[in-house]
Amino acid sequence: MSDPAALRSRAETLAGPLPALLAGAQHLARTVMLGSHGRRRPGQGDEFWQYRPAIPGDAARSVDWRRSARSDGHFVREKEWQAAQSVMLWVDQSASMSFASKGQAPKSDRAAELALATAILLGHGGERVGLCDHDLPPRTGSLQLLRLAQALGAGDAAAQPPDYGAPLAREMPSRSRALFLSDFLGDVTPVEGALLEAADRGISGVLVQVLDPQEEAFPFDGRTIFESMGGTLSHETLKAGELRNRYLDRLAERKDRLLQLCRTTGWQYTVHHTDTPPQSALLWIYGALERDH
C-alpha cells in the first residue's frame, strides 16, 4: 500500500499548474515547429510512406490494387518504420553548472530546459525518454514528462553536489541513444570512460557543452580570486589578465579533446552558450539525434 500522505502529495503535484521548467520547455519545443517524428524508411508502422513498383517476390496481399488500377503496373503501399527508440538524458547538476555571469541564467537552467524540450519533441514522436541519475528508465507519455520536469527542476538531491559531474553509461539500455549536457570543465577522464563504454554497448548520442559567455571570454584583469562553485578550489592572483591566453588555450584543448572523443565513439558534439537563443541548439540536438540512429 502506498503511503497516503505521499500519494496525496503526488496527486496534488500532478493536479496543480505545470512546473515552470516544463512550461518553458513546452514553449521552446513549440517554437521549432517540427512535424511527425518519422524514421523515413519502410517497415512496420501505421503511417503511409510511399508507393513503389511491385517486384518479383512481393506477396499479392501487399499490392495496393486501387493505386495499381490507375496505371499499367502493380504498386505496393509501404508504411513508414516507426519502432520506438529509447533516449536517455544526462543533465549535469553539479555545482559548476550553477555558475552564471551577470544578466545570464545559470548553465544548469539552460541545460535542463534544452533536455526537457528535447524530451517533449521525442515524446511527440512516440519515443521513450529517461533520465540518468534519477532512477527514471525510458518511458513515454505526459506523466513521464512531469517526472522529468520534477527531477530536473528539483536539482541534485545531494546536500552538497560535487564541483563537477560525469555520466554513467551503465544506466543506459544497450543500443539506445543519449543526450549529455554539461560544461565538461572537470576531469574529462570519467566522461571518456562513459562514452567508450557506451560505444561498446551500441549506444550513440549527442554531447552538448553548455558554457557561460564569461567562460569563453575570460574578461578578468588585476587582482582576482577564482573559486569553484562548490568552494573546494580557490586561486588568487594579482594579474588575472596574464592568465587569459593560457586559460583560452586550455579551453580550446578541452573542446578539441571532446570533439575527438565524439569522433572516435561515433557521437556528435557542439558548444552552446547561455547568451544565445536556445532554439538553434534545440534544432541541432533534435537533428543530431535523428542522424545518429
UniProtKB/TrEMBL annotation:
Domain DUF58, by residue range, is 50-253
What the entry lists under Pfam families is as follows:
DUF58
What is the name of this protein?
DUF58 domain-containing protein
Against InterPro entries, the record matches this protein to: DUF58
